[in-house]
Design brief:
35% of the residues lie in helices and 29% in strands. It is α/β, with parallel strands linked by helices. The chain has one domain: 3-Layer(aba) Sandwich (Rossmann fold). The radius of gyration is 16 Å and the shape is globular. The N and C termini lie close together (11 Å). The structure holds S-adenosyl-L-homocysteine.
């Protein structure tokens, strides 16, 4: 590993990451800012993509192809589905899917298109490191499925559909698209989220209240993972 990408979707998700580094060099590209830092002898590029699968794919591909990152880590917030996940709690994705990808009219399963697969798995090595870090720091972290779609989910109906169709533990709007990009380009990746809301009625209120504190939870854990990774 020579160069690490760390991305979020929103500014609030990368601010607490950037706070850990000095001497940040900003590179502007494709209507976005990429923050380059050197940390303990390793090059790191940090960026927030903007919300949704398209922007997230652009940023992930840019970090890999233009900035030549060979490991990609995502840190941010998500809506919780698994009742064990309370606001502020951490989940690492073992696999991700696109809950809004739908050509079921042709007999395909939800989340599937020809040439792809319903689920994309994250790097087992990165997950193992994350779990070791959680153990050492006595952090309670759930490993599970994250479902991604271009919609803020704030109804029990949609949440139940995602739960029953994909057995997902949490949902958000970027992870699975980043997974497809990294998997296609053979770059090991990892998605970490802290819960900001429970994706049902009132999710928008909880999200506004807990975005910052949950984003900090995710970022602080992510920095510890990076420390272990480059150790
Ligand atoms: N308040 C923001 C919009 C936030 S969209 C604005 O007005 O600009 C929600 C973001 O947090 C997305 O990046 C998504 O990945 C994540 N997220 C958290 N809870 C979510 C939920 N219930 N449904 C979908 N995405 C969620």
């Amino acid at each position: 590993m020579t160069k690490i990408a760390i991305m979020g979707a929103m500014e609030e998700e990368i601010e607490p990451l950037l706070a850990h580094f000095d001497n940040v060099n900003i590179v502007e590209f494709a209507n976005n800012k990429y923050y380059e830092v050197s940390y303990k002898g390793v090059e790191i590029v940090i960026a927030y993509s903007k919300i949704g699968k398209v922007f997230a794919s652009l940023t992930a591909a840019t970090m890999i192809e233009k900035f030549e990152c060979d490991t990609l880590l995502f840190s941010g917030v998500a809506g919780g589905i698994n009742p064990k996940l309370k606001i502020g709690d951490l989940i690492i994705a073992d696999k991700l899917c696109q809950h809004d990808l739908d050509i079921t009219a042709f007999g395909h399963p939800n989340g599937f298109v020809p040439g792809g697969s319903v689920f994309v798995e994250t790097s087992e090595k990165l997950r193992t490191i994350a779990k070791d870090v959680a153990k050492e720091n006595e952090l309670n972290v759930i490993e599970g499925t994250i479902a991604t779609g271009d919609q803020f989910v704030h109804s029990s109906e949609r949440k139940d559909f995602i739960e029953s169709t994909f057995k997902a533990d949490a949902l958000e709007m970027e992870g699975a698209s980043v997974a497809v990009v990294c998997d296609s380009l053979n770059v090991p990746f990892f998605v970490l989220r802290a819960i900001s809301d429970s994706a049902d009625g009132g999710a928008d209120i909880d999200f506004d209240e807990f975005l910052k504190s949950s984003a900090i939870n995710s970022a602080n854990y992510m920095i510890k993972i990076v420390d272990k990774l480059i150790d």
